[in-house]
Amino acid sequence: MANVTSTAAPERLQLLRVLGPAHVWALGVGIVLVGEYMGWNFSVGKGGMIAGLVACWVAGLLYTCVAMIDSEVTSTVAAAGGQYAQAKHIVGPLMAFNVGLFLVMAYTMLEAANAITVGFLLDTVAGMLGHSGLNQKPFIILAVMFLAWLNYRGVLATLTFNLVITAIAFVSIIVLFISVQFGGSAVPLDFSAITSDPLPYGWVGIVAALHFGLWYYLGIEGTCQAAEEVRSPARSLPYGTMAGIMTLLIAATLTWYVCSGLIPWEYLGQAGTPLFDAARVTGSTGLMMLLFVGTTFATLASANGCINDASRAWFSMGRDRYLPSWFGAVHPTYRTPYRSIVFLVPIALIFALGAPLDQVVTFSILSGLLGYTFMTFNMVMFRKKWPLDSIKRGYVHPFHPIPALLLLVLCATAYVAVFLGYGTQLIAMMCFYIVASLWFHFWRYRFVKRGDQFTMPWPRPNGY
Amino acid sequence: MAYKPPKQSLAGQIFDVFVLLVLTVGALYIPLYMGLAGAAKTPQPIANPTWEALGQNATEQQQWAALGITDPAAASDIITARFDYSFSWVALIVMAVFVIGYFVMVVRLSDKEYREVIEERFGPKR
Lengths: 464, 126
Known about the structure:
The structure holds 2 protein chains of 2 kinds. Chain A is mostly helical.
């Protein structure tokens, strides 16, 4: 029998348990669906049309592994912070600190990328209407500030808002696909580049394209950030996450098909708003308006979910004293992590206002990639420390350890993909995390209460 | 005996936040701002470009026109820009060492901290 000690914790304000499976789906897909509206197309630029499609499916395989692993661990470690709480219980405090930073950086950079896209889209539309040279910055600031305010006011309203605009953005992709298939485009689909210029960079282009192929799905793991606010985590989290990945696989393939057929691959490889551009090529005003709305909603839904997730990870770290405890406060009226929400606004704005889209996207992808690498050994350690018969799991993923090993191989390939063309950013990011880790271990950890880092009602881990 | 962490002053908390901000901006934004990081994609322009010389068929020319680009010279830089994927194996190995070394360091230091957590939570190892 495990010797589980219990101490009376002081009563503190908790986050509200108000979310269902549909909200989990909306949180996951809402964050990620913007990946169909912008960013994914840089994979075509890095490797050509075929490489873009291969990257889409290989990245889909990577995220299926992520969703399988994440569903098991999250349905068992149902606490705010998602992977952060998992790392705390399974690997240790420093890993948890790093995972918290991965989440915050991935989502904050994604939020910045969304804001850049909103500004770029409005600039494009203004140019089409004869008002070129629009100043994008006020719109970028306005988008970030409005969504931060919405998050400040409460999670239910925020995610219900996400549910509606995510659904509209998803339907827009389906409508564009059906319209183009049934002759709704003035310019026909053309896939001749597949035969005339199949692999402009050769096979290395296929590897390189995986870098931005991740963007189709990046953030789906964010579903488990809201674990503490879900009514039935063991049921809702796996259901919402798996439904989300299936939605995204369909949307990603349709998006590649429509955009690759309507836009020359060289243009597509550097476009800021590829689906909106595809609608422009059709010549249909209705489709253009629909995809304008879809792009706007997708970016807003994504930025909204990013603020939600990043602030919860930051809040969790503050509550555990990995960061100053001031961040661990819950708003007395709205019950939201309001200080964390406000603090992350200027960081998002620095990158949204001062960095190019592909580089902000790369920072987000790199932080996500580090998080997926963590999931591989985290899963193995979880099963080793607590075998299947030792604790009750909400969901048990099949074929362990094949998904973890496959994920590790795909992550290693993705690092090489980022290295091809963006190696300096990879090194800069690694330096950031190494210095931050040393800072935590040798300074910050002294403020952390040791025993409080393990809150799950589990027996002692094997080997400890 | 449970570990009792020191109480951090408000000034100390502010300083820690400042350190993280400096680290984020210094390591990630400054290299971008100084042009030290970014995509290595460069145009390889051709003289007197035509749509045919740029490898664009009739349908693709229609697509360019729908995107607001009717002059092949304006599309030339976009069409001819390519990444340079030549790299040194040494650089690739340095990258691998960075990534693997980072994870090894974090897992080892975490394990040391984790043992303290488990011992305080469950008592000394029997």
